[in-house]
């Protein structure tokens, strides 16, 4: 049987999409709190991303109509986590990926002392997870930099943010290290290049010079911060492990036309840049040259290179939802995917949001990453966003979701059989939550249905979908009965 006995089956959520309670216990505003739900946008418009300006951010934060900003309410996980953890435990979860908002401990990011209420909250939550036999897997930064830092100085563009983040991480490790042994630095760290505001607190119209340069500067600061907090974790919690996290944007050449292959290769070079730095300890030469040709300089300071080389990740985690293709043809038909707009693959089906479903791609991703780095891997996001219907008898029949996971698990198991060292799998998301890109509730991912619509109406009651029982069986049989 290929999957090891200690394989960590579970699910993944992010605080900004589930917690709500955005002003409770002293929490400061985060960039996620200004993301409005916009009805009637097409999937391509969603994929084009919000173009933030200082004016639009200030207007949104001054808007007291919380109903327009779904991430302010989430699914009330902040209060309902005991009930939700119990449901996850019922499915047999061995792990749960969560994140800790920086602003729950340091409301603006700049305070010198953390909020006790925030510390108490997460200590209680992690204790409860341990009691239920659920290993916490915790992301330090998942798309929620402090809004104050974004407005003050474009957050991660500023080098001083590194120290502030280190202060936050120090509190996390000293207060929660007793319970949490698996950590991730930045969710989809490469995301800062595609959505600078959400990921890095960068407001494009306030950036001096080119936005491209600002994004790579911020990314470099995140790399340095990641290495510094990895060193800190090793000092404060020696039995813990730190992972990096990549958006696995698997891209195939659209045809065997050599130009398509070359364009895909360039894309891939930049895709792997982040993991090369975080897991390999250095910027790869060809990627640096590609950046130079783009007019981008990496703002190295004395000691950065040594730091990056010394404190690399213990394991590589990644999200995988869809693949796409690359073509140099101007007429190529495009379709959205996770944070990208790629070229359509004629061999694949897509969801209503245009994301192309590709289970074999998961195996390809696992093998490519393992072959390149030889480090343990962890699939920390994978799942299917669909509209679900709650029937009058409180059921949700979601055979499409079961089919999606079944096909992906079969490929995952095959990759392990081929020799990949895989620590675990956490589905995105085990419970319906607010979509990151669209702020919709109706783009549902969970095994658990949450009674809430896009406008925030509903009881917030939880219901087990058909996939809930199916996933419980998969975990109980360690993937032998799909
Ligand atoms: C990943 C993010 O990119 O994709 C998650 O890390 C996000 O936060 C997930 O929710 C799915 O994307 P979406 O836009 O459908 O919520």
Automatic annotation (TrEMBL):
Domain of life of the organism encoding this protein: Bacteria
Record keyword Hydrolase present: yes
GO cellular component, one term: cytosol
Keywords (A to Z) from UniProt: Glycosidase, Hydrolase
MF (Gene Ontology): beta-glucosidase activity
The keyword Hydrolase appears for this protein: yes
Active site: 381
InterPro entries: GH, GH_1_N_CS, Glyco_hydro_1, Glyco_hydro_1_AS
Pfam families, per the entry: Glyco_hydro_1
Gene Ontology annotations of biological process type: carbohydrate catabolic process
Similarity section: Belongs to the glycosyl hydrolase 1 family.
Name of the featured protein: Beta-glucosidase
């Amino acid at each position: 049987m290929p999957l090891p006995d200690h394989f960590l089956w579970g699910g993944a959520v992010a605080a900004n999409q589930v917690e709500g309670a955005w002003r409770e216990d002293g929490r400061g505003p985060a960039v996620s709190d200004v993301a409005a739900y916009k009805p009637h946008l097409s999937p391509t418009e969603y994929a084009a991303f919000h173009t933030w300006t200082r004016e639009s951010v200030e207007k949104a934060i001054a808007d007291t109509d919380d109903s327009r900003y779904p991430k302010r309410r989430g699914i009330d996980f902040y209060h309902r986590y005991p009930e939700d953890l119990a449901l996850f435990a019922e499915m047999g979860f061995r792990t749960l990926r969560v994140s800790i908002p920086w602003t729950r401990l340091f409301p603006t990011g700049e305070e010198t002392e953390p909020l006790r209420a925030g510390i108490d909250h997460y200590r209680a939550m992690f204790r409860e997870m341990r009691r239920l036999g659920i290993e916490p897997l915790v992301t330090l930064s998942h798309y929620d930099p402090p809004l104050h830092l974004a407005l003050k100085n474009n957050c991660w563009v500023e080098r001083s943010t590194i120290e502030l983040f280190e202060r936050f991480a120090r509190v996390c490790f000293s207060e929660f290290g007793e319970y949490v042994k698996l950590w991730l630095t930045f969710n989809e760290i490469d995301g800062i290049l595609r959505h600078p505001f959400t990921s890095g607190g960068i407001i494009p119209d306030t950036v001096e010079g080119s936005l491209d340069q600002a994004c790579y500067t911020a990314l470099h600061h995140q790399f340095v911060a990641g290495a510094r907090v990895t060193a800190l974790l090793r000092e404060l919690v020696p039995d813990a492990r730190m992972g990096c996290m990549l958006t696995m944007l698997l891209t195939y050449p659209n045809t065997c036309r050599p130009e398509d292959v070359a364009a895909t290769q360039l894309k891939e070079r930049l895709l792997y840049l982040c993991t090369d730095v975080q897991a390999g300890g250095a910027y790869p030469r060809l990627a640096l040259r590609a950046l130079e040709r783009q007019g981008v300089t990496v703002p190295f300071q004395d000691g950065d290179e040594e730091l990056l080389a010394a404190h690399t990740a213990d394991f590589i985690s990644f999200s995988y939802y869809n693949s796409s293709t690359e073509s140099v043809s101007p007429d190529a038909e495009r379709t959205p995917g996770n944070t990208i707009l790629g070229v359509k693959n004629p061999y694949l089906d897509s969801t209503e949001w245009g994301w192309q479903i590709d289970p074999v791609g998961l195996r390809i991703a696992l093998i490519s990453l393992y072959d390149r780095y030889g480090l343990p891997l962890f699939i920390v996001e994978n799942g299917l966003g669909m509209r679900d219907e709650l029937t009058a008898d409180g059921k949700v029949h979601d055979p499409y979701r079961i089919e999606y996971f079944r096909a992906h698990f079969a490929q995952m198991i095959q990759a392990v059989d081929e020799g990949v060292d895989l620590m675990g799998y956490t589905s995105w998301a085990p419970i319906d939550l607010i979509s990151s890109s669209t702020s919709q509730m109706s783009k549902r991912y969970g095994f658990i249905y949450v009674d809430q619509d896009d406008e925030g109406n509903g009881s917030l009651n939880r219901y087990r979908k058909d996939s809930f029982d199916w996933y419980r069986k998969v975990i109980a049989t360690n993937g032998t009965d799909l």
